[in-house]
Specification:
- The structure holds two protein chains of two kinds.
- By secondary structure, chain A is an all-alpha fold.
- Chain A has 20 helices and two strands.
- Chain A has a domain of about 220 residues.
- In chain B, helix 2 runs antiparallel to helix 3.
- Chain B is mainly α.
- Chain B has a single domain, classed as Orthogonal Bundle (Helix Hairpins), CATH 1.10.287.
- Chain B is elongated and about 50 Å long.
- Chain B has three helices and no strands.
- Classes of the chains: A mainly alpha, B mainly alpha.
- At the A-B interface, helix 6, helix 7 and helix 10 of A face helix 1, helix 2 and helix 3 of B.
């Protein structure tokens, strides 16, 4: 029988799941007032965020060791809930403008956040699998949410087919790991794996890596990313690019650091190669993009490479805590910057699908200074240019990687960042130095999102210590 | 009694066939059936391992995989029907307006 402690371990997830179910029912009574659904969804996320923050410093495990509450899960869950709130803020006016204002949008978003939170708390491969599906299935629907548009339908179908394909690899990987170790519990796998080393376990771990690689868009499992990011409604893309990435990396880290340190020697080489290829390819292909959504999609692939870099030394106990903390810091920095950038994209997008080319940003500075300055801040942060949080994140990351003895990888990362300056700065040059006309949407929550993101991007970079301290405290031990 | 290796080899063959099917076929319904084949290959191996290891968690996992696959079918078929309604084709080569 479950004990009260079990429920306490999972309290925020349970509250949010119940809230989402209640909202789904309630929404059918709010016929013409979908704005209220959005507010209720945001309230649910805020309450859950409060509960999560109240759990800081606690650690427990529940449901026979299937889920755990620790500093790592609290950090990731808080980040997920913030990105859920920002996702609602981006969508609030956007769905009205695009004529897709339906209450299910917010319910699906809540269910997806539930899956993402469960993912960070899972310590059993069965729960990891269920959480991954709980976050993915609502995202498939959200990607196709603008179903009268061919592009959105296509994005939904592509995301669905490739997502389900990657699930197949994940499930088979879990099966092989179970075959090798006779358990699906992460710590039991660790115990069984340290005594025997066998091929089945390594292949299983590699297949699990493929499954997560699809979710976080690591080359060569990134093919779906540009199409889905471009075709999906922009508010969905903004949420998906942050939320799914955090959850995927959280689970990857949890599974590998808890269950597979015994095969770190093999995995480190694979992770090294994946990170290097992802950074190089993501940044190079982004150069040739003319659509801002596709460009940001390749930028998101490249950033998956940077974050993956932090996981390369996961099996080395002397280096892993610092590099994982740097990775978590970078993840938080990416979420803030990324939401801001997508907020600006939404502000320029028109219901007929115009306003999404990089050339549409020409002369933005002379029409709306605040927006152009904010976009400049985000672009600089994505390059890793001071004084932005992206620079601080890259500094911590490269320092940790060099300390870990992976100087070659750090050099590849620095060169990739230099290449990335080319396409990010092209947006900035367009905004300041070219002539152009555009229609800009002014909406309170949207303006607040990009404004706050721009402020935080600069402000945190001036005093980054506390966030790095939180990220270090959250590291897996 | 059939040795467990036979089950594992069969499941590996089924998984490979499923993965090839997804990559080669162009009809999303067939692609989706191939994905189901991959999942069920994993289920077969899971049950075989479960009986060798004398542990039940493998069988429980199989139930969850079946349930989740059903949820995926619901979403996937809805998407495919919607695309058919608007395009009158579901061949994935004809659904490729997004590229670059």
């Amino acid at each position: 029988m479950p004990q009260p402690q079990d429920y306490q371990t999972l309290l925020p997830v349970i509250v949010l799941a119940v809230w989402a179910c209640a909202l789904l029912l309630l929404d059918s009574f709010l016929i013409q007032r979908k704005g209220l659904t959005a507010c209720l969804a945001a309230a649910g996320l805020a309450i859950t965020l409060g509960l999560t923050l109240s759990q800081i410093g606690r650690s427990s495990s529940g449901f026979s060791g299937m889920v755990v509450l620790d500093g790592f899960s609290t950090f990731i869950n808080a980040l997920q809930l913030v990105s859920g709130l920002l996702g609602v803020a981006l969508a609030y006016a956007y769905v009205k403008r695009m004529g897709i204002e339906r209450g299910e949008y917010y319910t699906l978003l809540l269910f997806s956040v539930v899956g993402m939170m469960l993912m960070a708390q899972a310590t059993d491969l069965i729960v990891v699998f269920i959480a991954l599906e709980m976050l993915s299935i609502p995202l498939y629907v959200l990607a196709a949410f603008n179903r009268t548009q061919a592009a959105s339908e296509e994005a939904g179908l592509k995301y669905f087919l490739l997502g389900a394909f990657s699930t197949g690899f994940l499930v088979y990987g879990i099966t092989l790991v179970y075959g090798a170790t006779a358990s699906t519990n992460l710590s039991a796998i660790f115990a069984a794996a340290s005594s025997t080393s066998n091929l089945l376990l390594t292949i299983g771990a590699a297949l699990i890596l493929v499954g997560f690689g699809f979710k976080v868009a690591v080359v060569p499992f990134h093919m779906w990313t540009p199409d889905v990011y471009q075709g999906a409604p922009t508010a969905v893309t903004g949420f998906m690019s942050s939320g799914a990435k955090i959850a995927g990396f959280a689970a990857l880290l949890r599974v590998f650091a808890t269950a597979f340190p015994a095969i770190a020697a093999d995995m480190t080489d694979i992770l090294w190669a994946l990170a290097a290829v992802t950074m190089i390819l993501g940044n190079l292909v982004a150069i040739s993009q003319t659509d801002i959504k596709r460009m940001l999609a390749y930028s998101s692939i490249a950033h998956a490479g940077y974050i993956l870099m932090a996981f390369v030394p996961y099996g080395n106990p002397a280096v892993a805590p610092v590099s994982i903390a740097a990775g978590l810091f970078y993840l938080a920095a990416y979420v803030i910057t990324n939401f801001g950038a997508w907020g600006v994209v939404i502000a320029l997008e028109q219901p007929d699908g115009k306003g999404l080319q990089i050339s549409d940003y020409s002369g933005l500075f002379w029409r709306k200074r605040g927006l152009a300055v904010a976009m400049t801040v985000f672009m600089l942060s994505l390059i890793g240019f001071p004084p932005t949080i992206g620079m601080v994140g890259k500094f911590y990351l490269f320092r940790a990687i060099i300390d870990g003895g992976f100087t070659g990888l750090a050099i590849i990362g620095v060169i990739a960042s230099l290449v990335s300056a080319f396409y990010y700065l092209r947006v900035v040059v367009n905004m300041f130095m070219r002539e152009g006309e555009q229609k800009i949407e002014r909406e309170f929550w949207l303006d607040l999102t990009w404004g706050a993101a721009a402020f935080l991007t600069v402000a945190i970079s001036l005093a980054p210590g506390w966030l790095f301290y939180l990220a270090s405290a959250a590291g897996l031990r | 009694m059939v040795p467990v290796n036979y089950y594992i080899i069969l499941s590996a063959i089924l998984f490979t066939l499923g993965a090839l099917g997804v990559l080669v076929r162009r009809n999303p319904l067939i692609m989706f059936m191939s994905i189901e084949l991959m999942l069920n290959a994993a289920n077969l191996a899971m049950v075989a391992f479960s009986s060798v290891n004398h542990s039940f968690s493998g069988q429980i996992f199989v139930f969850f995989v079946i349930a989740v696959a059903a949820a995926e079918v619901a979403v996937g078929l809805a998407l495919i029907v919607q695309i058919f309604k608007s395009k009158h084709t579901i061949n994935v080569d004809d659904v490729n307006s997004l590229k670059g």
